[in-house]
Amino acid sequence: MNSKKVKIGNVYIGQDSPISVQSMLKIKSDDFKKNIIQAQKLEKAGCDILRVAVPNFEAIKNIYNLKTKIKIPIVADIHFDYKLALESVSAGVDKIRINPGNIANQDHIKLIAKICNEKNIPIRIGVNSGSLERKILSKYKKITPEAMCESAIYNIKLLEKFDFNNIVISLKSSDVKKTVIAYKAIFQKINYPLHLGITEAGTEKLGKIKSFVGIGSLLLDGIGDTIRITLTSDPVKEVKAGIDLLKSLNLYKKNINLISCPTCGRTKIDIISLSKKAEKIFSNFKYNNKNLNIAIMGCEVNGPGESKFADIGIAGGNEFGILFKKGKIVKKVEEKYLLKELVKEVDDLLGINL
Ligand code: SF4
Q1: What pLDDT sits at residue 263?
Q2: Domains of the chain by range and CATH?
Q3: Which cofactor does it need (predicted)?
Q4: Cα 246 to Cα 263: distance, rounded to the nearest angstrom
Q5: Would you state the torsion angle of the CA atoms of residues 122, 119, 16, 167, taken in this order, to the nearest 10 degrees?
Q6: Per-residue pLDDT for 354 more than 60?
Q7: Torsion-angle region of 258 (φ positive above 0: left; ψ -120 to 50: alpha; else: beta)
Q8: What's the pLDDT tens digit per position in 96-117?
Q9: Atom of ligand 1 nearest to the CA of 264
C-alpha cells in the first residue's frame, strides 16, 4: 500500500503500517457507563481504532470518559453540526469523521480543518452512497461508483484548499460490487489512506459474507489501510471478524495464526472438536500481539511434514499424539492431554504466565 502515512492517536495507518481493525460503539450515547464498558470490551478484543457517534453536545462526555478509560484512539462521528466536531477536538478526540453530504457550508468545513490542523488530528471523509451531495446526485441521476468518487475528490480538494491534507477516505455502499469499483477507482487517483467497509452489510452471517468478499478482494489487490466489518450485531463480533479476515490473508501480523488440517480417513482423533477448542483458547486477549504459527493436524504420518512452517503443533496418533516444533517431533503425549500440553508449550514459548 503506497498511501500516505496518517497518525491517529497512538496508531498509524497507511504506507507500511499494519492494517488496523475498527469498530463503533453501539450503546445509546447518553448511557455513559455502558459506553465505557463496551469500549473496554472492544479494546480487549483487539479493536485498533474506535468510532463513537456524537449526535449532540451531551455525547461529547463519552469522549472525555473514554480518553481516561481506554488507550486505543477514538474517532468522533459527526453529522450535520460542525460545532460538534470542534467540541470533540477540544475533548481530545484522535480523529474526526465527517459525512461530506451533510455538512454543506464551506466555512464550517474550513473551521473544522483549521482546528484539526492545529491539533494534528486527521479527518476521514466518509463518503456514503446514501448521502451524496445533491449536485453530484443530480449530475449522475443515481448512485454510482463514479458519483461516490467525485464526492470524495470534491471534498479532498476542499480540505486541501484549506491547507489540510491529514486525510483518510472511505467510500461505502451496501452494494458490494459498487463499493469495490469505487475503491479501485479512487485508489488510482489519490494517495491518502483508505478505510474499507461495506455499509449496512447486514446481520452477522450476511454481513460477514458481503464484507469478506468486498473488503477481501480489495485487500488482495493491495488496496486498503484500515477496515471495519459492519454487522448488525455486537461490535466485538465486528472486531473478531476483521481480525479473522486479515489473518486469512496473512495481513494480520499481531496474533496467533492457527492452522488445522481438514482431516481424512487417516486421523484417529477428533480433530474437529480439538481445533475448535484450540481456536477458542488462542483467541484469548492474552495472545494478542503475539506472533506464532500453531498447527493442529490429524495424523502423525503427514501432519508434521505438511505443517513444517508452523512453530509448534500437535498431530493425532493411536491413543497417543505427538507434539512437534518446526516439523520435528519433540514428544509423545497421551491423546487426552494433547491440547493441554500444546497450550503449556505455547505459553512457555511466548513467556505467558497462566
Ligand atoms: Fe489427513 Fe493426516 Fe493430512 Fe490431516 S494431516 S488431512 S489426517 S493426511
Answers
A1: 92
A2: 6-248 (3.20.20.20), 256-350 (3.30.413.10)
A3: [4Fe-4S] cluster
A4: 24
A5: 20
A6: no
A7: beta
A8: 999 877 787 899 999 999 999 9
A9: 1
Residue with cell 466489518: 229
Q: Which residues of 54-93 are buried (b: 16+ CB within 10 A; e: fewer)?
A: beeeebbebbebbbeebebbbbbbbbebbebbbbbbebeb
DSSP state of 18: P
Q: What pTM did the predictor assign?
A: 0.82
CA nearest to 17, candidates 25, 6, 31: 6
The response to whether residue 303 sits with its C-beta less than 6 Å from ligand 1 reads yes
265 C-beta closer than 6 A to ligand 1? no
**Mean pLDDT throughout 145-171?**
95
Annotated binding-site residue? 47:
no
149 is in an annotated binding site: no
Chain CA centroid to CA 3, Å: 17
pLDDT at 200: 86
Please give the number of the atom of ligand 1 that sits closest to the Cα of 306: 5
Tell me the best of 260, 266, 296 to mutate to test the pocket of ligand 1, counting ligand atoms within 8 Å of each CB and taking the most: 266
- Name the band, by pLDDT with cuts 50, 70 and 90, for residue 306: confident
Query: Measured from the CA of 297, which atom of ligand 1 is nearest?
Result: 5
Q: 1 CB less than 6 Å from ligand 1?
A: no
Q: Of 43-52, 66-75, 300-309, where does mean pLDDT reach its minimum?
A: 300-309
Q: Is the CB of 314 under 6 A from ligand 1?
A: no
Q: How far does residue 271's CA lie from ligand 1's centre (Å)?
A: 10
Sign for the pseudo-dihedral over CA of 76, 205, 17, 173:
negative
**Average pLDDT over every residue of 32-55:** 96
**Among the listed residues 127, 242, 103, the one whose alpha carbon sits nearest the alpha carbon of residue 183:** 127
